[in-house]
Amino acid sequence: MELGDIVGSIRRHVRVAIAILLLSVAVVAIFVVTRNTVRGDNRYRATVQVLIPARSVEDGTRPEDVPPVLLQGQESLALAPPTVDPAKKAAKLTEKEVDDVKFRVKLNETKDIVNLSADASKTDVARRASEALARSFIVQRGAVAGQRTRIGQGISRRNLDLLSDRLAEVEKELTAAGFKPPPVVTDASSSADPTTTADPTSSDGALPVLDLPEDLPVATILLAYERNTLLNQINREQATYAELGVQALTAKAFAEIVERPAPSQITPPVPSPLTPAAVILGLGALLALVVPTLIDRLDHSIKDSKHAALAFSAPVLSAIPSSSRADQASLATPGSERDRAFRALAATCVATDRLPRAIMVTSPVGNIQDTVAANFAAALASMGMRVALVATNAAQSWFVPSTDTPGAQAITLPELLERAHAGRLNGEIPHRLASTDMANLLVVPSGAGDVKMSLDGLPPLIEALSGDTIDITVIAGPALLEDPNATIFAWATRCVLWAVETGEVEEAEAQEAASRLVLAGVTPFGVAMVGREI
To answer: Residue 458's domain spans which residues?
Structure first.
C-alpha cells in the first residue's frame, strides 16, 4: 500500500477521521477533568522513631542486661494485636478513623531504630495514631520483658525447692552419722552478683575449706562439703529469686522515643496531563489514519475513478455529482452542477469521434443508468443532435411525456420490435416517436406494466432508428446482471456506456459484467461515475 492510497482513503472517509480526532480530544478533556477524582483523597503519614538496643554489627554480641527476646522480632511485636489494639483505644479513634488508619513498621539498617508509622486521610489522625502506637510498643516491650522475668523467677523457685529437699536429705544423713556440721563457710562467689552463678572450680573463685577432724570418714566429709555447697547455692538462688521479683514489678522496656518527623503527604501529586494527553491524541491520529484505510480494505465496492477504470477496462469520461433518490427521477435543472456535468459527458463523447449511432447505458446492478441515460440524451439534444431515447422498462416512465404525439399515437417499444421483426416499419418511426418539451429529443416508451418483449426485431429496429433523421439512439437498458435481456440490448448496439454509482457496485460485480460484454463482443465506450468519490 502506497502513501497515495492512504491519503485517498482519508479523503474518502474524512468524516470518519474527523470524528475519531474529535473523540480523542473529548477523551483528553474528560481525562483532565476527572483525573483528580480518580486519584482519590490525599493521605498522610506520621512517624515516630524509637531507639532500641541492637546486637553488635561486628561480632553479634548483645548489650548487657537486655533480654534476648527484646533484640529480635520487633516488627512483629509492633504490629501484634496486643500492641495495635491498645494503641487504637489510646488514640481515641472513631470507628471510621479505625478503618482509615493503616499502621506500618520498619527497622533501619543497623536495627537500632524502629520507625512506627500511621497512614490516614488527616494529619492529626495520623499523628495521634503513630504516637499511640509508639507508646503501646514501648509498654508491650516492657510486658514481654516482665513476662520473661517471671518465667525466670519460676525457674529459680523450682531450683530452691530442689536444693532445699537435697539439703534436708544431707543433714539427715549427717545426723544419723553422729556428726555435727561446722558453721557454713561462704565461697568466693557469694559476694558476687546474686543473679549470676559462679563455677566453684573456676580459677577466679577460691574453694571453701571446712574445719573438719582428720579422722572423719570420707563419706561424712563429702556430705559436709555438699551441705556447705547447698547452703551457699540456696543463698545465691534466694538472692536471684528476689532480684527477679523486683525486675518483674519494674520491668524495663529498653526503648526510648528519639524523634517525631513532621507528617508527610504520601499520596503522589497529580501527574502532568501532557504525556497522557499526547499519547491519547497520538493514538487518535493513528486511528484516524488506520480506520479509513481499513474501511477501504474491507470495502470492495467501486469508490473512485481508478477502481472503475480497472474494473470495467474502460476510461472514466465524467464524474457526475450525486443527488437524492427523488431528484434522480427527473432531469437535471438547467445551469446546475449536475446539468454541467452531463453536458461535459456529452461533449467528451462527441469529442472522441467514436460516438456510435446507437449506444446502451447500463449498470451491473441497480437503476442509476435510468438517470444517466435520460440526462445524457438531453445533453446531446441540447448540443443540436437529434436523439431517440429508448425506455426498456416501465420504471423509466418518468422521462416519457404524458401527452401523445400530435396527429398520431406514440408507438411503444414492444410494438416497434414486433413491426421490425415483421418488416413493417415502413419508415414511419420518427413520426411515431413521442416528442418532449426539449427540442431534438424523442422518446420510445416501454409500454405500461410488465410487457414481454420479443427482441428478435431489435437489430432491424436499431438500424431503422439510426437513419438520416436520428443522429444517435440512447437505450436506457436494464441492469446487466439483473436482466437477461440486457446482454441482448448490449449485443444489438455493440456499444455500452457504463453508469456506476460510487459505493453501490462491488468490484466483483463490475468485473463479471465487463466479462459478459467481452463474450458478447461489445465494446465498452466509457464509464460515467455518479456520486462523490469515497
So the answer is: 302-530
Taking the C-alpha atoms of residue 400 and residue 442, their distance in angstroms, rounded to an integer, is: 9
End residue of a domain, out of 242, 264, 286: 264
Same domain for 327 and 259 = no
- 250 and 354 belong to one structural domain: no
The H or E element that residue 274 is part of is helix 274-298
Backbone angles phi, psi at 115, to 5 degrees: -95, 110
372 and 275 share a domain? Answer: no
What are the tens digits of pLDDT across the range 23-41?
999 998 888 887 665 555 7
How far apart are the C-alpha atoms of 55 and 477, rounded to whole Å?
Answer: 105
Asked whether residue 140 falls in the same domain as residue 237, the answer is: yes
Give the C-alpha separation, 327 to 256, whole Å.
Answer: 95
| Closest alpha carbon to 94 in 122, 117, 131 | 122
Q: Which residue has the higher pLDDT, 400 or 511?
A: 511
- Taken in order 495, 499, 505, 506, the sign of the CA dihedral is positive
Q: Are 319 and 305 in contact (CB under 8 A)?
A: yes
Are 290 and 341 found together in one domain? no
Task: Express each pLDDT in 169-195 by its tens digit.
Answer: 988 988 888 888 778 887 755 544 444
DSSP 394: G
Which residues, including other chains, have CB under 8 Å from residue 310's CB and lie 6 or more apart?
none
Element (H, E) at 182: none
This prediction has a pTM of 0.52
Determine the Cα–Cα distance for residues 498 and 345; give it in Å rounded to an integer.
Answer: 12
77 & 18 share domain: no
Cell numbers of 254, please?
A: 529498653
Domain count of the fold of the chain: 3
The CATH number of the domain holding residue 417 is 3.40.50.300
Q: Of 279, 296, 313, which one is at a domain's C-terminal end?
A: 296
Average pLDDT for residues 502-528, to the nearest whole number? 91
CA dist., res. 319 & res. 341, Å (int) = 7
* 3-class SS of residue 524: strand
Q: Count each helix (H run) and each strand (E run) in the chain, helices first.
A: 17, 13
Distance CA 438, CA 374 (A): 12
- Do 145 and 211 lie in one domain? The reply is yes
